[in-house]
């Protein structure tokens, strides 16, 4: 039986999901003996030079690590950004684009991104974020923390005198720096999320310790582990892994307190959007929203589309489908129960609409994201 070391940088549910993905691949193909160091800090990992096993799955961050792997000639799979080696990694551009779409949907029109230009994954995430915003016609400011976290406070200090500088939406390249980001923003008496909405990356446990808790983009740890195991197995069989990295799309967003606000000046649009986000999954109709917001339907529709970019009906359908996606991935409920919990009258109706919106059936979506 082959011995494989798994050096995961993720703690909590994400790290567990990655191990589950590896275990599922082994169940389907070949059993291995796994060695999993009980730490996520790469500075405390065992030296790869001392590993006497058959293969390693790890993030190749340091050049010295790559040199060691090359010297000992052991099959390995890299799980971060590193050109020229066998790699399965998160689709960082897609993660950034997803974060941008979330902040746009919340109504924000001022944007900044906190990056570190010496970290390739951070650069990719911010590139995706900026690309999506610019495609929609919105500029974004960059805050580079490679020299000092004080750059964050300096940036927000300079915004004080600017008209219409707030509210704004901010991307941080990793949840790991979220305590520092919160500290720098709140030291200037800006409130999160009322003035500054913050979205992170990787959905780490540290985001739950903050006040307000941190909204974060969720990587697909299971698929990352499964495809990494697949690539390692390919090497065990004497096959050459693909030259290009395999990119794993994100699962979605865990929305928490740090983005529980809207960036609209139009309070009627904000009220309508809040009602839709809270009640679309229960079958609320556009007419009910109009009655509760106390505007004519024509007036509200016009203002809503101007701010959001699409109609209230389209937003209701989007929220409804996102709710279905969450139930498909987070539960094993039969489609009949998912349909009922999402205000679809029949499972067949859910399947028809879901295919129209996503290009696949609910069962195909569940299979793709749960495995």
Write the layout of secondary structure elements.
Layout: E1 2-6, H1 12-28, E2 32-35, E3 55-58, H2 63-72, E4 76-78, E5 88-90, H3 92-105, E6 111-115, H4 120-135, E7 141-144, H5 150-158, E8 168-172, H6 178-186, E9 196-201, E10 215-218, H7 221-236, E11 246-248, E12 252-254, H8 267-279, H9 286-293, H10 297-308, H11 312-330, H12 335-341, H13 347-358, H14 362-370
Parallel strand pairs: 1-2, 1-3, 3-4, 5-11, 6-7, 6-8, 8-9, 9-10
Antiparallel strand pairs: 10-12
Describe the structure in your own words.
The chain is of the alpha/beta class. It folds into three domains: 2-89 and 220-250, Rossmann fold, CATH 3.40.50.2300; 92-219 and 254-259, Rossmann fold; 267-370, Homeodomain-like (Arc Repressor Mutant, subunit A, Orthogonal Bundle). The protein is 46% helix and 13% strand. The chain is built from 14 helices and twelve strands. The protein has helices at 12-28, 63-72, 92-105, 120-135, 150-158, 178-186, 221-236, 267-279, 286-293, 297-308, 312-330, 335-341, 347-358, 362-370; strands at residues 2-6, 32-35, 55-58, 76-78, 88-90, 111-115, 141-144, 168-172, 196-201, 215-218, 246-248, 252-254. The strands form three sheets. It has a six-stranded mixed β-sheet, with helices on both faces. The protein has a four-stranded parallel β-sheet with strand order 2-1-3-4, with helices on one face. Helix 8 crosses helix 10.
